[in-house]
Design brief:
The structure is a single chain. The chain contains 8 helices and no strands. It has about 280 residues and is mostly helical. The protein has 2 domains: about 170 residues, no CATH class; about 80 residues, no CATH class. The chain is elongated and about 115 Å long. Keywords: Coiled coil, Membrane, Transmembrane, Transmembrane helix.
Length: about 280
């Protein structure tokens, strides 16, 4: 894109307002396209991503049976020694009761533990079956999502082209109006445009100009300059930085539609039309 050697008369109030409106639109467009690019790249990376399923292993019963057998042998051996020392009939009642309790607890505990392990294994088998069904569903989802990747990549390429074109247009616009380099960003342009549009200022330079007012309000923390801080206090900036607030809200709405391919394509087309309109306004060919 080339630009005719013309300058914007920023001394004329109507021309200045139109000029700042063009800067605001292009800065807002650039910001939105950059956010769109990041979201599209993340979406491409996420499409076709396989889910991770937790596969539990069965509980081993044989290990416990061996322990139970050895423990039972030890108990039997102790009982045998007791019988050999004195007959069961002459064993004191507490000893008989203790022996019976030990045997019952050992056998009962083993049975309960084995049944518990079998039930846990049954649950694991059922979970494996459910996982297999989910894995099959996930494979179909992956196949479906991978088919969408080429279309999303086309939109990403168009988005990248829109960013490049918008950056070139902005560069031309800034040079045409000799806009001070320090304020060539979305936050500053939004605020300066708001000063002019609201009538708080009628010119860019000078003691009562928009540049000076912007500097004063940033020093007084009336205007927030960092976008990261603005995201955290979006509702709070509505009062003093309405144009920036509106730009971010519009961007957030567009990003909420990022999963809708038709909406993304429509926005990319809208950007092309907007850029063409600005070019025609300032005779960029």
């Amino acid at each position: 894109m080339n630009s005719l050697p013309i300058e914007v008369d920023v001394e004329d109030s109507a021309t200045l307002e139109e000029y700042l409106e063009s800067l605001y639109v292009e800065e807002k467009t650039l910001y939105c396209c950059q956010q769109e690019k990041d979201k599209l790249q993340k979406r491409i990376n996420m499409l076709g991503t396989q889910r991770v399923f937790e596969l539990k292993t069965k509980v081993r019963i044989t290990g416990y049976l061996l322990d139970l057998f050895l423990f039972g042998c030890a108990i039997a051996y102790l009982i045998w020694l007791r019988i050999m020392d004195a007959s069961w009939r002459y064993m004191p009642l507490p000893g008989q009761i203790t022996t019976v309790i030990v045997l019952l607890v050992t056998i009962g505990g083993g049975i309960v533990d084995i049944l518990g392990r079998r039930e846990k294994n049954r649950q694991i088998i059922e979970e494996h079956k459910r996982n297999q069904l989910e894995i099959q569903k996930d494979k179909k989802r992956i196949e479906s999502e991978l088919k969408k990747v080429p279309a999303v990549k086309v939109q990403l390429e168009q988005c990248e082209k829109n960013i490049k074109d918008t950056e070139e247009i902005l560069q031309h616009l800034y040079e045409m109006g000799r806009f001070f380099p320090k304020y060539r960003n979305l936050v500053a342009v939004s605020q300066i445009y708001e000063y002019i549009l609201s009538g708080r200022c009628t010119e860019l330079g000078g003691f009562q100009g928009a540049y000076n007012l912007y500097e004063q309000e940033t020093r007084m923390d009336i205007v927030i300059m960092r976008l990261d801080d603005i995201y955290e206090e979006l509702e709070e900036i509505k009062e003093n930085q309405y144009m920036l607030y509106d730009a971010i809200c519009q961007t957030n709405y567009m990003l909420s539609q990022i999963a809708d391919d038709a909406a993304v394509a429509a926005y990319n087309t809208e950007v092309i039309i907007t850029n063409q309109r600005i070019c025609q306004r300032y005779y960029m060919v």
